[in-house]
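To illustrate this point, we now present one chain and its tokenised fold:
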Amino acid sequence: MSYSCPRDGSALVSPEDSDRSTFSRHGIHHCDECSGMLLNADAAMSAITQDKLNQMHGSFEQSGAEVDLDCPLCDSRMRVRGIAFTRLDGTEMDPIELDGCPTCSSFWFDAGEL
């Protein structure tokens, strides 16, 4: 199945067709045009701690502003919310505006957000 980028409409490169081993290993679809990345819940679990993933998913179900992006996986309207991550060294990163789907729990990371 092929998916389209919610930012520019171009075809997303599947993990199987990616020449980037990290994307292939973690099941990440990516856009060659805008460098955005799509993580479904399974891919996100391998890249993000379970506690943080549960917090992120819950925040999109309960709040967040609706944005003019349709989820590439289920076509639901995505929501945006500020999310702060902690680096491996324990320091906090500046919050990013992350787009998430309240229906299927997938996340869209714009270029430079992941």
Summary: Strands lie at 29-30, 37-39, 65-70, 77-83, 96-100, 107-109. The chain has one domain: 15-109. The first strand starts at residue 29 and ends at 30. The chain has three helices and six strands.
